[in-house]
Amino acid sequence: MQGRSKHGSIEVPETVAMDILSKLPVNALTRFRNVCKSWCSSFHTSHFITQHHQNNLKNNNHFNLFLKHVPGDTHGDGPIHQFSALSIEKGQNFLLKENIHFPLFEKSRYALPSVSGSCNGLLCLCFTDKAILWNPSTREFKTLPPSPLQNLPNLPPAPFFGLELGFDSKTDDYKVVRFFLNCVVSWNYQVELYSLKSDSWKGITLPKAIPSGSSSGLSSCCINGFWYWHAADTGLLYSAILSLDMANEKFYTLPSPEFGGSFQKYAVQVLEFNGSLGVIFHSRRGIEKSFDIWVMMSGSWTKQFSVESVSGVEWPLGFWKNGELFLAGSNNELLLFDPASKELKNLGIHAHRNAFQLITYVENLVPINGQSENEEYIIRQPAGDASNRN
Fold it and tell me: Which of 53-57, 130-134, 317-321 has the highest mean pLDDT?
């Protein structure tokens, strides 16, 4: 029950205050840490961190977008990659508001890491042989340690692929999986798993299938404790969904949806759709593109919807709120398609389409036992008017 202090002000019960605070964005909570010591302590508890994240998911609050791109108006001796935060506030949808640079990765101004996994507000970034975990909400990052399998004495580190970040709820641990080709010892593929709790890598048994790429990057996602990749042979005659249970660390293979088309003519992307495993088939060539969206429901594939004959688009980049679909446009623009109304909206952000990568994440307070952002490693700069629209 609320009461009054000796100064006459109303005292709010601690449980009520925590419930209210758990609905606020991370930047507000960061400011409130200096208001009350008990609040600051509460913000670091697993109960509050979980409640805050669940509120964000339940109410569609504090969703954020990052865009990796090469602006269309580049000059000089080559394209300059940018990693940008997009404004999604009412009345300012999808304007570039902040450019982010990563000196800890960049060997030149033209190199930029790829986001190879997004889970519970954490991102996993990689560039050649280096990877980091990053919480952009709390501005904390952690460089992953070198792997004993990947780094052999007197030899350059082997580049990796198929990297994914996920959360193992059974052990309350964030894990990273990655594949790499051991071209020195055996010319065989190997798989290794990183645990945030132990801060170490270990090798796991290699599956029969190997993840394959897509036109917009490697096709993979993490849902409810499982990693998923699209796997295909070099001739595109065979296609399957490769999965890894992060709790028992075993691989499984699922059949692809029987969509009735040819894998030589249709590209495949694996992604999350409203919390479930989804697969998009889209035509590889032609002025008009078609899309089939399938979702795994109760152990079987169900076609969610089809989009026929959309002009001026290349491939999907990911889903947004209410089932809207981000697309890379044929004229190097970022597009948003509404399957219900069939409306195709040009968001006014241009880039070389081969460089597009769109990342959605929800704010989270989860700690990663790393270090705070500073200009030696990560630099944030407000996006100028010229970089917002090309």
Answer: 130-134
Q: Which residues pair with 232 in a beta bridge?
A: 239
User: Which residues, at least 6 apart from 101, have a Cβ–Cβ distance to it below 8 Å?
Assistant: 83, 378, 379, 381
Give the Cα separation of 161 and 152 in Å (integer).
18
Report d(CA 81, CA 63) in Å as an integer: 24
Cβ(230)–Cβ(212) below 8 Å: yes
End-to-end Cα separation, the chain, in angstroms: 56
The arrangement of strands across the sheet holding 276-283 comes to 266-273, 276-283, 288-297, 300-311
User: Residue by residue, what is the 3-state secondary structure of the chain?
Assistant: CCEECCCCCEECCHHHHHHHHCCCCHHHHHHHCCCCHHHHHHCCCHHHHHHHHHHHHHCCCCEEEEEEECECCCCCCCCCCEEEEEECCCCCCCEEEEEEECCCCCCCCCCCCEEEEEECCEEEEEECCEEEEEECCCCEEEECCCCCCCCCCCCCCCCEEEEEEEEECCCCEEEEEEEEEECCCCCEEEEEEEECCCCEEEEECCCCCCECEECCEECEEEECCEEEEEEECCCCCCEEEEEEECCCCEEEEEECCCCCCCCCCEEEEEEEECCEEEEEEEECCCCEEEEEEEEEECCEEEEEEEEEEEECEEEEEEECHHHCEEEEECCCEEEEEECCCCEEEEEEEEECHHHCEEEEEECCCCCCCCEECCCCCCEEEECCHHHHCC
Question: Between 313 and 217, whose confidence is greater?
Answer: 313
Model confidence pLDDT, tens digit, residues 201-216: 998 887 777 777 544 4
Question: Is residue 268 a contact partner of residue 281, using CB atoms and an 8 Å limit?
Answer: yes
**What is the per-residue pLDDT across 94-115, written as a single tens digit (0 to 9) for each?**
788 888 888 777 654 445 677 8
What CA–CA distances, in Å, run from 259 to 86, 276, 282, 309, 388? Answer: 35, 18, 11, 17, 39
